[in-house]
Amino acid sequence: MATRSTDIAVIGAGAAGLSLAWRLLDPPPGVRAPAVVLVDAPPGPLRPPERTWCFWEPGHGEYDRLLTADWRRLRVRDGEGDGAAHDLGALRYKMLRSGDFADGLRPRLAGLERIEAVVEGVGDRPDGAEVLCRTADGSALTLRARWVYDSRPPAVAPAARVSLLQHFRGWFVRTERPVFDPGTVELMDFRTPQPGHGLSFGYVLPTGRREALVEYTEFGRAPLSDRSYDRALHHYTGHVLRLGAFRVTATEQGAIPMTDGRHPRRHGRHVFPIGAAGGAVRPSSGYAFAAIQRQTRAVARALHHGGRPEPPPAYPARSLAMDALLLHGLDSGRIAGPEFFTRLFDAVPADRLLRFLDGQTGWAEEVAVGLRTPVRAMLRTAAGLPRLSRRTPPRETAP
To answer: Where does the pLDDT of residue 351 fall: very low under 50, low under 70, confident under 90, or very high at 90 and above?
Structure first.
């Protein structure tokens, strides 16, 4: 068995792993960059497919040249199709493809050592940690590091009182006639048939007058079959959007946990989960990219300046408490999802609401948002939530 040593081992080459790696290799003047080894799974089922990340931030950002598109307005439509476009003020809603992200970061990662291997175990040691790997040719490799950052999904999801999924399938479409407004995101379009449990909506990210990513999304307990997703997309594109003739150029599909489970912040003194595994997914919305950037920026800053390099919490505790109430309300049926979200976007300025969803608002703003929710239903939900026990969610299986 071969053994190698490094300062930092990063497991996984998704948003969290790549973001952390390039930040570590880009220290401030006068600071030595640590030696970093990135362990990525070989091509196959352990490597995630290409995906789309969306996030928002004020004006220009560090990944702008890699974006597919960005927008200044968004709209939430009720079941009748009504809904005004909301200006985002100083914010921009941004779309980034994972392949473009990886390709665009390649020049920044010129000094990065990569290993393609399956990680079979990670163990804490008195002076660091070790990663047990199996390379593509079957060889065993032990990688020893001072610190290890692991972005792999946990083998067992954290115990939770409420466990839903935001599951979806999307088509990248090109239409024969110009039908999309390239300046406005259709964030939630509730003209989709609503399921018996949870909620559903359409989501449209236009990248031109004839091009868009069109998704069908549900908040529920289990994903659908491919046939059911495609049937819902045919209905949405044909009967709701009335796109006319179009062709599908690519597809994407996924399921994002929406849970009040408590993600561990460490797996030992020298091993830390990052990204979705470290709680970066906002439970009420499924967004994670912005929180990943905050986490990896904080870790890199600590390592560059000799501090404790533990990832900070992705969201304030009060944000997670409010998310737990919303998820329980949706799961129990006390809160009707379409009415809840359309009312919220009608009553609260869109830029404030997006900052709220990102955990970046203060107490006064959060109280103002809370008063625009169905207060009585939320109070009933709050009364019942402490009586729920935390259980380990069942492992997700392919439909």
So the answer is: very high
